[in-house]
Each structure stands twice: as C-alpha cells, then as structure tokens.
Amino acid sequence: MAVPTQKPSSPHQKLERIVILGLPSFLKRQDKEFSSKFQFLSPSESNLPLEQFLEAEAQNTQAAVCSGGFKISAEVLRHLPSLRLIVTLSAGLNHIDLSECRKRGISVANAGNIFSADVADLAVGMIIDVMRKISAGNRFVKTGLWPKQGNFPLGSKLGGKQVGIVGLGSIGVEVAKRLEAFGCKISYYSRKKKPFSSYSFHSNIHELALASDILVICCALTEQTRHMINREVLLALGKEGLIVNVARGAIIDEKELVQCLVQQEIAGAGLDVFEHEPHVPRELFGLDNVVLSPHSAALTEGVFRNSNELVTENLEAFFSNRPLLSPVLDDE
Amino acid sequence: MAVPTQKPSSPHQKLERIVILGLPSFLKRQDKEFSSKFQFLSPSESNLPLEQFLEAEAQNTQAAVCSGGFKISAEVLRHLPSLRLIVTLSAGLNHIDLSECRKRGISVANAGNIFSADVADLAVGMIIDVMRKISAGNRFVKTGLWPKQGNFPLGSKLGGKQVGIVGLGSIGVEVAKRLEAFGCKISYYSRKKKPFSSYSFHSNIHELALASDILVICCALTEQTRHMINREVLLALGKEGLIVNVARGAIIDEKELVQCLVQQEIAGAGLDVFEHEPHVPRELFGLDNVVLSPHSAALTEGVFRNSNELVTENLEAFFSNRPLLSPVLDDE
Questions:
Q1: Cβ separation of A181 and B180 shorter than 8 Å?
Q2: pLDDT tens, B16-69?
Q3: Interface with chain A: mutation pick from B115, B118, B135, B258, highest number of A CBs within 10 Å
Q4: Half-sphere exposure of residue B238, counting CA atoms within 13 Å on the CB side?
Q5: Mean pLDDT across the stretch A160-176?
Q6: Which of A172-181, A257-266, B66-75 has the lowest mean pLDDT?
Q7: CATH of the domain spanning B14-114+301-319
Q8: Residue A288 has pLDDT above 80, yes or no
Q9: Chain A CB contacts of B181 below 8 Å
Q10: Least confident of A86-100, A303-317, B109-123, B124-138
Q11: What is the spatial distance between Cα A247 and Cα B225, in angstroms, rounded to a whole number?
C-alpha cells in the first residue's frame, strides 16, 4: 500500500503562535514534533524592524521564547500587549525587565537547573586550570620550551583551600559538592542563610572574601549584585586569592578586576563571562594566571536538545493551564 | 649576655653519610635541622665520573636518596656494596632495579601517598580541560577570535560518563572519588580485584577500554604494564574516547597513541608524562583536543617540604631500626 511521504500541511489557525526573540538558529534546531505543535514568528527572519514586526504580526501572541542575549525591555513588552508568558533559554534573567512583567501579569520560565552541573564542571575546571597552570603548561610544552627551559613553575595545591561560593543556588551547590571531593572547605554568601546547607554562611561578601582562598561567583545578576565584587572585595580576597566567574560579567566591576590582576593584587582568575561580551579586556590576554572562556559554561553537546525539550514542556504546560516546569521564583 | 650566633661545626664522624643520586638541587632545599643530622655525598657536585666517585667516597655508605629521573641499575648498585636503603623522592619505582635490590637485601622507600591528591587533581583538571575545551577556549578568547568568529565549538558533558581507572592504587582512588562528585561512573582494571572497592572490576584492560568513555592511567610502570595501552586498547576506547595519563609515559605505546590522535581514532588526550621526557612528539603540538603538561602532576608549592620531611623520617627510621614510613610493597 502506498503511504503518503508528506504530512498534510498543518492548519495554522489551530497552532499556538509563539514569538521567537533573539534566537536566529533556534528554529532550525526544532524537531518535527515541536514544529507541528506551534507556529513560530521570527522577527530576525523578517525585513521589518523589531517593533514594526511585533505590531504587524504579534499583537495576539501570548507566548515568547527568548535567548539570554536578547533584552526584553518595557519598550519591547509594550509592543506585545497579549503576552502572558516568556520562556528564556538562559538560567540568568538579567535581560528581562521582571518588574514590568509582574506589572503586566506575564509569567516567566527559565532554564531551571538544566545547566547547573555543566556550569559547575567548567567552574571547577577553571579553578584547577589556573591553580595547576594547565593552559600555561600546555602552551609551555606545545611551543617546545620544556627541553629548552626545563623547570616549569610550581602550581598551587587545591586540597585544604577555603572556597567561598557567592550564591548557593543550584549551580553553587554543584560547585561545592565537587570541590568537597578535592578536600576544599566550603563557605558561602547569599541574601539569606540556606536552611538545607551545613556550609559556613557569611551574610557579608567582604567577610566571605577575607575568609576565602578562592571565590566562585554563581549568583544571579540583579540590581543588588551588579558590581558587588568591587575593589574592596578583591583586596579582601588578597594577593594569594583566585576568583572564578561563571555567572554574569557585571557582578564583578571588570575595570577594577583587570587592575587587580595586572597589578598582582589578586593571584589569578578564571572568567567565563564579561561585562561587554564578546569583548574582553585586552589587558588580560597576556596573563598566564588568567584563564578566559567564551561564555561556554552551559554549552555541551546535549544542551540544545535538553533546552528545547524544557521550552516545549513549559509552552505545553502554559497552553493547557498546567503549572510551568521551571517558573522563575521570586525568592531565588 | 652574648649569645654565639654560629653553631659549633658538627663532628662529621658522627653523622650518617647519605649518597644523593640525581638531585642537584635537593641539598639546597634542606633545612638546617636536616643537614645537621646527615652528611650528604653528592656525585653531581664532584668532577669525578659517577662510578669513580662512588668507589672513592661511598664504599661504606648505607643509604641513598634519589630522584625519579635517576636510573639505579645493577651496575650502579655494584659500586655501592654497603647500601641497605634507597629512598626515592618519586612515587614511581621504574628507575630502580628492584629485583637487584631484593637480591642484595636493599630496602626501598618511595614517596608513598604524598603526591596522590595533587596528581589526582591534575588528572581531573586535564579531563575537564579536554572535554570542555578550556585551553582551546582560552586561546580562542586571548587571540581575539570571539568577536570575529562568534560561536565556539560545544564541549562534552562530564556527567554520566563511564570512567575506567587503570590501577586503583592511592592515586586511582583519589581520581575516582573526585569524578564520582561529577556524576561519572567508575570502573577499574588492576591485577587483582580490590576487596575495599565497590567499583566495577575488569580483569582485562581491553574490556575496560571497551566499557569506558575516559581511561585514566594511574598504575605503576613495570615490565607487565609497559606498552599495556597499545593500538588495540586505544581502538577499543574508540572515536569518542579520551585518555589521560598521569603515571608514566611508557605505559602507553606513544607512537600508536600519536597515530590514533592524528587520525582521530580516539577523541582526545591529557598527557602529563611521555616516553622520552622532556621530548614530546611534535605531531601533538597542533592538536586542540590534546592537553600536554610537563610532568608536573605532583609539583605543587608544598611538595619539596613534604617530600623532604618524608625522606628525613625514612632515613631516621632506618638508622634507628624502626620500620620505614613508606616502604615499597611487593603487592603494589
């Protein structure tokens, strides 16, 4: 029996319309099942400027999917009057005007915990890399210096080090769990003491830095945490101190960080995120004690599949009036 | 009251004479206490060839301290007829002719477990580095490619990976403990099943490689383990497989490893040790999926202090007829 090889074209009027903001490659990665459930409106595939596109095409659209790089301002929201849901593919929410969303009754879902383990892996990898000079040693060997120069500088021991976790959310917990296995001692800073944790708590970031050999930044970027790691905190971390950032660049005052690294006021850094990505301060390029990474902490082979699944599940839950899978919680 | 600022010179005839083999910088690192207990004979500070020096100076010497790079052959031992103890600063013993030592009744002490945690840290650091492309990403950012090229290739997820530990000694156990915290599944190969371990045991290296995403070489180099990781084992590890070596270069057939890496028959490698150190096959220099390190797994800031303490304690134990602190055990 002959089987039709082509599906009948889906009746568009029955599909929910979803606006895709800032994800030009997102649609290409969709599997057939996903595309058969929703109709996607993509301003990036239109010749119209964003706001004209939204006014022309998206006035009745109830849901949007966005990347972490797309700024969802009050102005953008004004052009989406029917919007009731934003699903962001990022864990961070600093690109979304959350107070405007609250005002307009728009729900927001994020990537939840799906990146946490991978982000923690990169954080720990960067700590070991800087302390044990892995990238620098790799360069030393690959440029043929070993037979010529002999000794390579000693690295630092990880065991016994005091690690301060800034933000004990799902990423911070994963970082701590891994570093405990290396014999590190964990303490943390957050707005409130976490009842589930037995790690030593500091309510003051300056005190945490004073008590730490290594600071790992794992918190959300908010108005409260912007430039929270300032010159004073870096000086409290001190000449032997190492800082690792897998959260958002602007949590650290980048200008002061560069100054501290160049003047050896702290010992080193592992940075996956920056204030003005993809632009990275050139002063860091020549420093062996600084390991830089192109905001790739969450990017491993299965990430798009996992993240698309979560987006689908959040959209389906929304349109069938079930609770979202990864709603943004106000209490972090 | 005037206090004499200089100690009276020690009466040399009362000090035990220790021959130092292959450690030109060892004596300089000694603290005063150490030097006041022993008299060191250092062929590297003499103009005589080694064997003439030993015949002239070391005929009554009962103890020797050596580095891992100094070959203690039957021939060297023949020139040290009174020798009863060798203390090596290395964990590995492949530079010492152990069967000749047994024949001559010479005890051997090594570095015991003092390097295990640091070596395991580097092994795990190299695994994360290769899988998450840390060194490659660092180069990508530091050469200014991020703003020009945008996307950086995805890394591999560590969680859920099958890790095969080759040699579950003190280093292997530390590697396993760390990788469990990353959600890896551990199995191991050794000559005998370890009664203390619940990890899955393979009595055949080929089977371990077949079952593993990552092989970590942590065993001693012996006649049995030389080139144990041959082409067949590498092909069993396979195109997606990663190999990390923090043990000794010659456990892997380096020529075959280079071939497999160049032809992408395995996915990547992290290598701290090589067959002909400090010479490293140049074919590896251009490969982003290979991270090289100048035999520095044990080299962290406190290493010389810790290792000198252990040497002193072994020498003191020997000369006062107490058991050695880190004797070499025949059963690994």
A1: yes
A2: 999 999 875 665 555 555 667 888 888 888 899 999 999 999 999 999 999 888
A3: B135
A4: 12
A5: 97
A6: B66-75
A7: 3.40.50.720
A8: yes
A9: 177-178, 180-181
A10: A303-317
A11: 44
Residue B59's region, left for phi above 0, alpha for psi from -120 to 50, else beta, is alpha
Q: A154 and B300: CB-CB below 8 Å?
A: yes
* Sequence spans of domains, chain A: 12-113+301-319, 116-292
Q: In Å, how far is A279's CA from the nearest CA of chain B?
A: 6
Q: How confident is the model at residue A186 (pLDDT cuts 50, 70, 90)?
A: very high
State the amino acid at position B280 in one-letter form.
Answer: V
* Identical fold between B14-114+301-319 and B116-292: yes
Torsion sign, CA atoms A157, A186, B116, A140: negative
Active-site annotation holds for A248: yes
**Any residues with CB less than 8 A from the CB of B223 and at least 6 apart, and which?**
none
| Structure confidence at residue B12 (pLDDT) | 45
Is A293 within 8 Å of B138 when comparing Cβ atoms? yes
Chain B environment of A138 (Cβ under 8 Å)? 129, 135, 291-293
Average pLDDT on A197-215 reads: 98
State the catalytic residue, choosing from B95, B174, B202, B248.
Answer: B248
DSSP conformational letter for A282:
G
- Tokens representing A106? 């728009």
**Identity of the residue numbered B200:** S
CATH class (in words) of the domain with range A12-113+301-319:
alpha beta
Q: What is the pLDDT of residue B305?
A: 82
Which CATH entry fits the domain spanning A116-292: 1.10.760.10, 3.40.640.10, 3.20.20.70, 3.40.50.720?
A: 3.40.50.720
CB A104 within 8 A of CB A79: no
- Contact pairs from chain A to chain B, CB under 8 Å: 177
Query: pLDDT digits over B82-102, tens only?
Result: 999 999 999 899 999 999 999
Mean pLDDT, rounded, of chain B: 91
Shortest Cα–Cα distance, A35 to chain B (Å): 24
Active site residue A16: no
CA distance B128 to A331: 33
**B186 three-class SS:** strand
Which residues of chain B are within 8 Å of residue A159 when distances are taken between CB atoms?
117-118, 121
Cite the beta strand spans of A110-219 per DSSP E. 162-166, 185-189, 200-202, 214-217
pLDDT digits (tens, 9 = 90+) for A13-64: 478 999 999 875 665 555 555 667 888 888 888 899 999 999 999 999 999 9
**Cα distance from B129 to chain A (closest Cα, Å)?**
6
The pLDDT value given to residue B33: 59
Point out the catalytic residue in the list A45, A75, A180, A277.
A277
